[in-house]
Amino acid sequence: MKSITGFALSILAVFCMVQPLQAQQSNNFKDQFTRHFDYASRVLSLAEAMPAEKYSWQPEEGVFSVERVYTHIARYNFYYLENSLGIPAPDDVDVENIESITGKKNVVDILEHSIKHVKDAIKEMPESKLSEQTEMYGQTVNGQAVLMQLITHKSEHVGQSIAYARMNGIVPPWSE
Question: Which of 4, 102, 118, 142 is buried most deeply by CB count within 10 Å?
């Protein structure tokens, strides 16, 4: 009888541990996308931590400056949604000229605006949009592929931003 009770308690304990894990791990693509997008959005705290006088810094001629990396991320946050998924940028955003924005406050503002836009758009996006066929870089892809490209692009430039920060003696806020 003790072995049956022990076995039952073991099963119950495993179930109690697994159930919360399953609740935390969603198989919903939009939820997974949002988690990855939020993680990559740490770049906003790095943009805020970088001193204003470092925004024009670039490691060498012909390479993006700090502010250009941030505005590039912002531009493509809007661009992928608009050009491949048909989700327009807000009326107050000129997507084609975002990368010409300068100055820490302006750059941080547009980066933050772009992050909010993506999060709001994904929240409102119908699931059917994820499987719809669309065009991206001359290829026919579905909505999920567009969102994966958005994450990949953003993550690449987050890494670049981290390198720029460290080259300037700035420790990313999440590393402290």
Answer: 118
- Six-digit token string for 167: 């080259």
Angle between helices 66-79 and 104-124 (to 10 degrees): 20
> 169: which DSSP letter?
T
- CA nearest 44: which of 176, 173, 175, 145? 173
**Amino acid symbol at 84:** S
pLDDT of residue 71: 98
Those residues whose C-beta lies under 8 Å from the C-beta of residue 38, and which sit 6 or more positions away, are 119
* Count of beta carbons in the 10 Å neighbourhood of residue 93: 18
Cα separation, 53 vs 156, whole angstroms: 24
Q: Is pTM, for the whole model, over 0.85?
A: no
At residue 148's C-alpha, the angle toward residues 144 and 149, to 5°, is: 120
